[in-house]
Each structure stands twice: as structure tokens, then as C-alpha cells.
Q: What sequence folds into this?
């Protein structure tokens, strides 16, 4: 397996970094306290005497306080990044044929906006992971879409989750989006007033009651969409939804499969104290990675998912032929 290109981090490294960060945080707090006291004395002297030297001390004190705050924030951010890297690398070990984790990178707004899967005017994205599993390449990152930036403020809650893009081996020509009903307010049906007719996506139902109760579909070409949404695919998508109990979107566009769901890759809320529970965080992150493998194994790699629809059509045609033959006799 190709290893992550970032430097390996051990628990001993994290422990040493945490102890160093705690010392730095203590020093920063002491400096802030001393500067606050000094600030009060400087202001008192400036008011009482009006000497210009106190003004210089005032600005010097302000500069020291700003520098101390920046140093403290950098210390916390550096520790958080190292912890996330350790958790992701440990959770991903042995799960993929190759992977690379870049905590400071993410998707660009233009790329995801062009996919036209979600309503968004602004996007924040980090914790980018790229890799390959069973010859299927994928890109995945955490994404955050503030509700205040959504088009016409139709959605009242923020979206905080992950977005995965898989290379899809089956060719298709038209867009298809499948959204669970609980994420439908964030979903985007590409059918605006200025949208060219050939790019419009229309709502439709598959006729599969169990599937239609969970998902809402929109496609540019319903007939082609049904060659992707085979009976086996629909059953597996429903099972994936109920097993995870997470709102999700599946989207086919430009020979890629987009999988959007409300579970982030890297854990959030990491603090210097109390000490983070690394084992628990690795376990939760590994669950997130299993969803990547499951989508690849059940919705992309399985040959049966594309053959059963063709089989169903051939069976229907054969039944029609037999019925016509029986009627002729």
C-alpha cells in the first residue's frame, strides 16, 4: 500500500507536542496577564502625565498582546492539525490501496458549485483525502455551507459534512441526483429560468415504493437514470441509508459519482485539555472510511448492479413475446 506522503506521527510525538503546547499556553497566559497589568499602568501614566513615552509604551504593550494571542492560536492550531493527521492516518491504515491526507486543503467552491448538487453561495472545505480502492480513485473532504449564504435563504440550517467524488466506470451522458428526503432542502434541482433545456433536471419517481419513501430523484434523462438506478442499486442505497441513519445525496455527473453526507472525516473540537480520547476518535473516523469502501464495493464495483436492469427488460420483452404468441394461437 502506498503510504501517506505526510510525516508519520506516533502517540509519543503527540504526547510530547501536547506537553510542549501546554507549557506555551501557560507562558502566553502569564504574558497576557502581565501585559494587562502593564497596560493599566501605562494608561494611568499617560492620563496623569501626558508624556509621549507612555504613548510609545502603550503601542508596544498592544503589539506584545497581539503577538501573544497569535502565538497561542498558532500553538493550538498546530496541535490540532497533528492530532487530526494521526487519527486519519491510523484509521485509514490498511483500508485503501493508496491514500494521501492534506488537513489544510479542500475542495474549491467552483468545482462543487459546477456539480450542481447543493444550494451554496459560499463553501468552506478542508481535510482533503485522496486515494484509490479496488482501482477506483476518489477525493473526499469536509465541507461547511453556512445557511446565511444559501440562495434566497431557503435553508435555515448549516450543512456540515463530507463530500466524496468517485471515478465512475460506467459511462453515462446525463446528470442524475438522488437525495434523501431529510437533506432535500439543501438539494439543488438544476431547473432555473435561465437554465438551458438540455441541462435541466426533472423530478421523477422510480415506482419502487421502499426507495421513493427514502429518496427524491431528479434527472436530465429518466430512461438513462433508470439504467443506473437498477433494482439492486436501489436496494443497496436504501440499506446504506438505514444502516448509517445519515442524510445523504448521490449524484452522477461527468462520469463521476458524488456522495454527500452529514459526517465529517476528521474529528472536531480537539482541545489541549482534557487530553483527547484518541482511540474513540480513530474508531469513529474508521466508520467514516468504511462508507467510502462500501459505496465502491456495493454501488460501483459490483457487476450485478448494471446487469439486473438489462435482465429485467429482456424478461419483460420475452413475456410480451410469449403473450403475443399465445394470443395468435
A:
Amino acid at each position: 500500500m502506498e503510504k501517506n506522503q505526510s510525516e508519520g506521527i506516533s502517540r509519543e510525538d503527540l504526547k510530547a507536542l501536547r506537553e510542549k503546547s501546554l507549557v506555551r499556553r501557560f507562558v502566553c497566559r502569564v504574558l497576557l496577564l502581565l501585559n494587562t497589568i502593564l497596560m493599566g499602568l501605562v494608561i494611568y501614566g499617560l492620563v496623569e502625565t501626558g508624556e509621549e513615552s507612555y504613548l510609545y509604551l502603550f503601542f508596544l504593550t498592544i503589539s506584545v498582546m497581539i503577538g501573544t494571542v497569535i502565538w497561542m492560536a498558532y500553538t493550538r492550531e498546530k496541535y490540532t492539525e497533528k492530532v487530526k493527521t494521526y487519527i486519519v492516518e491510523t484509521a485509514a491504515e490498511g483500508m485503501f490501496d493508496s491514500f494521501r491526507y492534506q488537513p489544510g486543503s479542500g475542495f474549491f467552491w467552483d468545482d462543487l458549485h459546477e456539480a450542481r448538487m447543493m444550494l451554496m453561495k459560499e463553501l468552506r472545505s478542508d481535510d482533503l483525502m485522496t486515494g484509490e480502492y479496488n482501482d477506483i480513485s476518489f477525493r473526499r473532504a469536509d465541507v461547511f455551507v453556512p445557511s446565511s449564504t444559501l440562495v434566497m435563504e431557503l435553508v435555515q440550517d448549516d450543512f456540515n459534512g463530507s463530500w466524496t467524488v468517485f471515478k465512475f466506470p460506467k459511462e453515462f451522458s446525463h446528470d442524475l441526483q438522488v437525495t434523501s428526503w431529510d437533506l432535500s432542502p439543501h438539494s439543488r434541482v438544476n431547473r432555473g429560468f435561465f437554465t438551458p433545456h438540455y441541462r435541466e433536471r426533472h423530478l421523477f419517481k422510480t415506482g419502487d415504493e421502499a426507495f421513493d419513501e427514502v429518496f427524491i430523484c431528479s434527472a436530465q434523462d429518466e430512461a438513462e437514470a433508470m439504467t443506473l438506478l437498477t433494482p439492486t442499486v436501489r436496494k443497496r442505497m436504501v440499506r446504506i441509508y438505514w444502516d448509517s441513519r445519515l442524510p445523504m445525496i448521490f449524484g452522477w455527473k461527468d462520469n463521476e459519482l458524488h456522495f454527500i453526507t452529514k459526517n465529517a472525516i476528521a474529528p472536531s473540537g480537539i482541545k489541549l485539555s482534557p487530553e483527547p480520547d484518541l482511540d474513540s476518535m480513530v474508531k469513529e473516523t474508521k466508520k467514516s472510511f468504511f462508507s467510502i469502501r462500501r459505496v465502491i464495493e456495493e454501488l460501483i464495483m459490483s457487476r450485478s448492479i448494471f446487469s439486473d436492469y438489462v435482465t429485467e427488460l429482456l424478461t419483460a420483452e420475452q413475456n410480451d413475446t410469449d403473450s403475443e404468441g399465445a394470443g395468435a394461437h
About this structure: Strands lie at 98-102, 124-133, 136-145, 159-167, 176-180, 202-204, 215-219, 248-253, 256-261. The two ends are 64 Å apart (CA to CA). The CA atoms of residues 296 and 302 lie 8 Å apart. Residues 1-6, 149-153 have pLDDT under 50 and may be disordered.
